[in-house]
Design brief:
- It is a single chain.
- With about 450 residues, the chain is an alpha/beta fold.
- It folds into three domains: about 5-85, SRP54, nucleotide-binding domain (Four Helix Bundle (Hemerythrin (Met), subunit A), Up-down Bundle); about 100-295, Rossmann fold, CATH 3.40.50; about 305-435, Orthogonal Bundle (434 Repressor (Amino-terminal Domain)), CATH 1.10.260.30.
- The chain has helices at about 5-15, 25-40, 45-60, 70-85, 115-125, 145-155, 165-180, 200-210, 225-240, 255-265, 285-295, 300-310, 310-325, 330-340, 345-350, 355-365, 370-380, 385, 395-405, 410-435; strands spanning about 100-105, 130-135, 160, 185-190, 215-220, 245, 270-275, 280-285.
- An eight-stranded mixed β-sheet has the order 3-2-4-1-5-6-7-8, sandwiched between helices.
């Protein structure tokens, strides 16, 4: 997500940082480069022009600053304007005070609408809300089956009627069923089409009038760039959508759709799809996303992901055990598995401040099966060896390597990493016992 855009913007700002003192001519040159990068990322031309005009107005006098690095100040201005371009502030789902809240999902065929409906249902269920899905896509043969399969997987009820194509009646019956069951939210999955046409829009308009949804979420494919913006305009003109979900943002998206859609529609991006799994739906925070684009990280989202992914009881048990007895390889494996729940290392790294394109390249080249290999090595040891890794002499290492089907060098590397983590845990524990007073250089 935004890899290409981030890399090029970072290169543009790196040239400015290297100059120390900036002249107005330097700033103009830098902004010309930013303009080129945004247009290459398929950002709307008019929005790009307005964006740069605002940045240039705010950048007047930046070159005269003495207390703050002018280049850093310029990056701050670009960050603020990117945030504004992406929607200024987070806007969540508007939940009705009188349940059920009705959410109508619309979009073109192939945009990921049905999967997104299930992802959203899972998210709401995780927040403690009773959710029901309504299968109102009666034209695509596999749509009802797909939604029912996802519903069964997530243990979320799905209302469907087979044998007729009266979408309005199906939606109304599904909402009635939800009211009887006292569900808090109903998500209606509507039919997509291969292109926007009058017949399709007319049916959606009639459905909107019949069920009076609290939210109309447009699901748009983030990979389609400016086409996504044109499609969004068509849906908004007919339905007055309340928000957007951009899907496939984990792919090679240049970012043009995300950076243009709010500016054109003035409708918030509420969620982004970042993978095929049912948990791969993120809330969209404009300010955090601007930070990611400028490689400033997104620690808040990382913390939220950790809170949702980590087993709180297991984490507490591990912390208590490590403080009392120290860490062994069993604990190390548990900790690694907890971290693995955050998703691919590449995605986690992008949320850390200061991670640049070079670092990301190294991460991408890393073996994606590394965690599985690590687990195989640890599980090939006896319980005694896991509890006391100092027992791991040459012959034991060779035996473990053979059992795990990995080279001895990987066993050696794992044990070295474990020793480093042990040292770090001792220092952290020592600092906590000393009242949190960290001495200079204690973590070197």
């Amino acid at each position: 997500m935004f890899d290409e855009l981030s890399e090029k913007l970072e290169a543009a700002f790196a040239r400015l940082r290297g100059r120390g003192v900036l002249t107005d001519a330097d700033i103009k040159e830098g902004l010309r480069e930013v303009r080129r990068v945004l247009l290459e990322a398929d950002v709307n031309f008019a929005l790009t022009r307005e964006f740069l005009e605002r940045v240039e107005r705010k950048a007047v006098g930046v070159s005269q600053l003495r207390t703050v690095s002018p280049a850093q100040q310029l990056v701050k201005i670009v960050h603020d304007e990117l945030t504004a371009m992406l929607g200024e502030r987070r806007e969540g789902l508007k939940l009705s005070t009188v349940p059920p809240t009705i959410v109508m999902m619309v979009g073109l065929q192939g945009s990921g609408k049905t999967t997104t409906a299930a992802k959203l249902a899972r998210k709401l269920k995780g927040e403690g809300r009773a959710v029901r899905l309504v299968a109102a896509d009666v034209y695509r043969p596999a749509a009802i089956d797909q939604l029912e399969t996802l519903g069964a997987q997530l243990e979320i009820p799905v209302y469907a009627e087979r044998g007729h194509q009266d979408v309005l009646k199906i939606a109304r019956h599904g909402i009635d069923e939800a009211r009887k069951a006292r569900d808090r939210v109903v998500i209606v999955d509507t039919a997509g089409r291969l292109q926007i046409d009058a017949e399709m829009m007319d049916e959606l308009v009639r459905l909107k009038e019949a069920i009076r949804p609290d939210e109309i979420l447009l699901v748009a494919d983030g990979m389609t760039g400016q086409d996504a913006v044109k499609i969004a305009q068509g849906f908004n003109d007919a339905l007055n959508v309340t928000g957007v979900v951009l899907t496939k943002m984990d792919g090679d998206a240049r970012g043009g759709a995300a950076l243009s859609i709010y500016g054109v529609l003035k409708k918030p991006i509420k969620f982004i799809g970042v993978g095929e799994k049912v948990d791969a739906l993120e809330e969209f925070h404009p300010e955090r996303m601007a930070g990611r684009i400028l490689q400033q990280g997104d620690v808040l989202t990382l913390v939220e992901k950790a809170q949702g992914a980590f087993d709180a009881e297991e984490t507490k048990r591990l912390e208590k055990k490590v403080r009392k007895e120290g860490m062994d390889l069993n604990d190390f494996l548990v900790a690694m598995k907890q971290i693995e729940k955050l998703g691919p290392l590449e995605g986690v790294m992008k949320m850390l401040p200061g991670v640049n394109a070079k670092m990301m390249k190294q991460v991408k080249q890393a073996d994606p099966k590394r965690m599985k290999h690590l687990e195989a090595i640890v599980l090939s040891m006896t319980n005694k060896e896991r509890k006391d890794p100092s027992l791991m002499n040459g012959s034991r290492r060779a035996r473990v390597a053979k059992g795990a089907g990995r080279p001895t060098s990987e066993v050696n590397r794992l044990l070295e990493q474990f020793r480093e983590m042990q040292k770090m845990m001792k220092k952290v524990s020592g600092a906590q016992q000393a009242g949190g007073k960290f001495k200079p250089g204690m973590f070197r």
